[in-house]
Design a protein that fits this description.
The complex is a heterodimer of chains A (438) and B (388). Chain A has 438 residues and is α/β, with parallel strands linked by helices. Chain A has 16 helices and 10 strands. Chain A starts with 21 loop residues before the first helix and ends with a helix. Chain B has 14 helices and 8 strands. Classes of the chains: A alpha/beta (438), B alpha/beta (388). At the A-B interface, helix 6, strand 4, helix 7, helix 13 and helix 14 of A face helix 5, strand 4, helix 6 and helix 13 of B.
């Protein structure tokens, strides 16, 4: 076997300045341990893979004993640790355009700075880049750029876009054929490990357990008050399942712990935990579309909880897999199921599907409105979001608002502008409520 | 027609953002339909085989004031989707019965869904193309994609599209590609006789004319250009790359030429040259189109390069076969495919010691002085290096 032997540990007992749920500490430990594992992988004789969060085939990669790196996660971790700004500028000095994705530039900048990961551990050069081209054009160029620099082997998995809002048999067959004839043989050759479909099935069965508990957790926000924040809190919750842990017992354990914590909060009618403690009063319930800003993550979050605003659902929490409308990994048809997982990731959905999903969230989670955080770097999310705003307002009658920031480029986070807009938005919601009473 | 008349006609078609040529074509026979498509490539043969007119929608250029379109996009999104929406919302595209949105980038991909919502009475289709180039994998998928479009168009016209109709259309477009290649070969040979500011207009005419009309027009231009005596200058011969989607304003092309550059190859309006070999017009037509795409299509940023060694091969081929002396990277602002690709291509060129320069534009860029200066300096430096 071969899955990294990581035993779940008891949550850290130290009293931190910043308040987090126990599950959040556990999640942090998992992520940090993965970085350590990556740092020592080559010494331990293990091969290293890199792949993306949307369309992340973690169960499959584990079948070949790869240590698993996710460059988007590296970039966002560097963003949260205030390291990404210089990396981006270094990449721009190296010839990369100021117009393109800052995840890419943070990754390339990190390489230029000597390949040290966010936790300070060295990040090894990947032995294989699994280019899961799912819902984002930039992924393709990103790994071509990395390949150009490191000359590492790259295997493409082209996941067709749901232009018609559905997965056709031809689309699924195309992905399955690529898995069978391209991806699996390449991973076998590089790792030297023979593919065992029963091993894949076993991981997928494990995935389902975590998926069930994740969905339960995210849907707990339907309660009033919501016991979680479905955006700022959810980025922690999705960490293990969207990255190197889906299909592991550690992930199952993490989501069990998380669920039991949230169940307790529901019973006690408590609001979400914020970095400054429990939210005392839930004044606004919002749905958010778009990724968060990472460089000023806490400041950004604070603008919400200070006003009593809770995000009850977010599309970003579905970027590495949409599970809340019924999809689960299916061990009985493993490759088909992996294909459907990739095809169903949020940014692979077409516009009418995305709008339908947001409208459903507003209805099912009894939200006061929609907030779009439009990210400069991410055309996959951002191009056309102003139409989403109009359509959602038209269909739900709920007010929507629009702010702009970036993923990991600190130059594109204007706290004063965002705060002003949010305050106006909260006022608008209040007025709408008052008008509804008369 | 004289050279002036041919160029004048092409320019009039290029400037007509009301698409009167399309309206006239439709009015000439009852029941005719027109289908729009965006860059970079769609198999126009399918539309043609349905008896419909494929119409290239390449943004609004610098002649349209974008008012409504801007309300749909943030400042950091390129200009082509906003001017395309402007064209749609101002009724200029009412003459189209449908739109095809090719797989080129996330912006155009998302625009396909926006179009579904904004123009509900029109046929809208996102055209996915394979990034896997095996016949039995990507080829099968692409045949299915084309078959779906074929069925959609058949439904729109009320009867199936036969294999014979498809084969006939393949032959028509083979002839068109041949004529365009002749034009490109001639320009590379004598760029002073066929300046790019004219060649570009001739290509653009092919976006609104049926191929049966465009092919003779290309040849007419070629014959008239050959007959004209024009002065040869000591210009630098350059390949221009990165302009495969949002097109630069015509004045930008003219500025580069005026600054001392002969453009001997480019990636403007690539749909006319996407397939580099004639497509067999016998046998199974969709398979023939799929194989042409997989094995004989242009290498461009929206396509995946399977191997590191493949990167820049096509650009080097353009540079060498057209006798170029340098490369100009001209990309639209905020164009992910072109701008992400650029450093990789530059590295390939640097290894070969091929000089290059780079700038960005928008389809409505108005200030040409900086571009003229940069292109002029580049041309001068090439001439100085060659002399040394």
């Amino acid at each position: 076997m071969t899955t990294p032997a990581m035993q779940p540990q008891a949550p850290t007992k130290a009293k931190p300045a910043v308040q987090k749920e126990d599950a959040m500490w556990l999640q942090k430990e998992l992520i940090n341990r993965n970085y350590h594992e990556l740092a020592t992988a080559h010494q331990a004789g293990r091969k290293v893979s890199a792949t993306f969060v949307p369309g992340n085939l973690n169960e499959l990669l584990m079948c070949f004993d790869f240590a698993r790196s996710l460059p988007e996660t590296n970039a966002l971790q560097n963003g949260m640790r205030k390291k990404s700004g210089k990396m981006i500028m270094d990449a721009e000095r190296d010839g990369h355009s100021e117009d393109v994705c800052t995840y890419v530039k943070a990754d390339l900048g990190m390489m230029l700075q000597g390949e040290v990961g966010p936790t300070g551990d060295p990040l090894p050069r990947p032995d294989v880049l699994l280019l899961s081209y799912t819902g984002c054009f930039t992924f393709m160029k990103w790994f071509e750029l990395v390949r150009q620099k490191y000359d590492c082997e790259t295997v493409m998995l082209h996941v067709p876009y749901q232009g018609d809002g559905k997965i056709s048999p031809s689309m699924r067959d195309y992905v399955v054929k690529q898995l069978k004839e391209k991806v699996i043989p390449t991973l076998e050759r590089i790792s030297g490990v023979k593919f065992d479909i029963d091993r894949l099935r076993q991981y997928m069965r494990e995935s389902v357990k975590a998926e069930e508990d994740l969905v339960w957790t995210l849907q707990s926000a339907k309660n009033r008050p919501s016991p979680i924040d479905g955006y700022f809190g959810a980025v922690y919750y999705i960490g293990p399942i969207f990255t190197a842990f889906r299909g592991t017992p550690e992930a199952t354990q993490y989501y069990r712990v998380l669920r039991s914590e949230i169940e307790q909060r529901v019973r006690e009618k408590k609001g979400p935990i914020t970095p400054e403690g429990e939210l005392a009063e839930e004044k606004y319930r919002l749905v958010v579309e778009g990724p968060p800003n990472w460089t000023s993550f806490r400041d950004f979050w604070k603008m919400f909880y200070e006003e009593g605003a809770v995000i009850v659902a977010s599309t970003y929490a579905k970027v590495g897999g949409v599970y809340d409308f019924g999809f689960r990994h299916d061990a009985e048809r493993p490759l088909e199921s992996l294909a459907e997982y990739c095809l169903g990731c949020y940014t692979n959905l077409n516009f009418p599907q995305r709008i339908d999903m947001i409208c459903k969230y507003i209805d099912q989670y009894q939200a006061d409105g929609l907030l779009i955080n439009s990210i400069k770097s991410c055309n996959s999310f951002s191009a056309g979001q102003l139409l989403i705003l109009r359509e959602v307002e038209k269909r739900t009658g709920k007010p929507a608002a629009f702010i702009e920031s970036d993923l990991v480029d600190p130059r594109y986070f204007s706290a004063a502008n965002i705060k002003n807009r949010l305050e106006s938005y909260f006022q608008m919601i209040k007025q709408k409520r008052a008008a509804a009473l008369h | 027609m004289s050279l002036k008349d041919v160029v004048g006609r092409c320019e009039a078609l290029f400037e007509d953002l009301n698409f009167n040529a399309v309206k006239q074509w439709k009015a000439a026979a009852p029941g005719r339909k027109a289908i729009g498509y965006m860059p970079i490539y769609v198999p126009r043969e399918l539309v043609h085989a349905a008896g419909m007119l494929p119409v290239g929608i390449f943004g609004g250029g610098d002649q349209i004031e974008v008012i409504q379109g801007d309300a749909y996009y943030q400042s950091y999104i390129c200009r082509i989707p906003r001017s395309t929406i402007e064209l749609g919302l101002t009724g200029r595209l009412d003459c189209l019965d449908g739109m095809l949105f090719p797989s080129i980038c996330d912006v155009i991909r998302n625009l396909s869904g926006m179009w579904q919502i904004m123009f509900k009475d029109k046929y809208v289709r996102y055209v996915d193309v394979p990034q896997n180039y095996d016949d039995s994998i990507g080829g099968d998928f692409y045949v299915h994609e084309m078959q779906q479009i074929r069925e959609d168009l058949a439904k729109l016209r009320g009867k199936p599209i036969t294999d014979d109709e498809l084969r006939a259309s393949i032959a028509v477009y083979n002839e068109n590609r041949k004529a365009v290649e002749e034009l490109y070969a001639y320009r590379a040979q004598k760029p002073w006789q066929a300046p790019t500011s004219e060649v570009y207009l001739v290509l653009r005419a092919g976006l609104v004319l049926p191929p049966e009309e465009h092919t003779p027009l290309v040849r007419e231009y070629l014959a008239s250009a050959q007959a004209e005596k024009r002065p040869q200058r000591d210009n630098a011969r350059v390949v221009l790359t990165g302009s495969f989607c949002e097109q630069p304003p015509l004045s930008l092309i003219k500025s580069i030429e005026m600054a001392g550059c002969y453009i001997v190859d480019d990636d403007f309006v690539l749909v006319t040259r996407w397939l580099r070999e004639p497509v067999p017009s016998t046998g199974e037509p969709l398979e023939a189109l799929a194989k042409a795409f997989l094995h004989h299509s242009v290498q461009s940023s929206p396509k995946y390069d399977e191997k590191k060694e493949d990167k820049g091969k096509f650009l080097l081929h353009q540079y060498k076969t057209r006798g170029a002396e340098g490369v100009i990277f001209a990309a639209p602002s905020f164009c992910d495919p072109a701008l992400l690709e650029r450093p990789m291509l530059q590295e390939v060129l640097a290894k070969q010691k091929i000089p290059y320069t780079a700038f960005k534009y928008a389809e409505n860029t108005g200030q040409m002085a900086p571009i003229r200066e940069q292109a002029g300096t580049f041309a001068d430096s090439i001439k100085l290096w060659s002399a040394a």
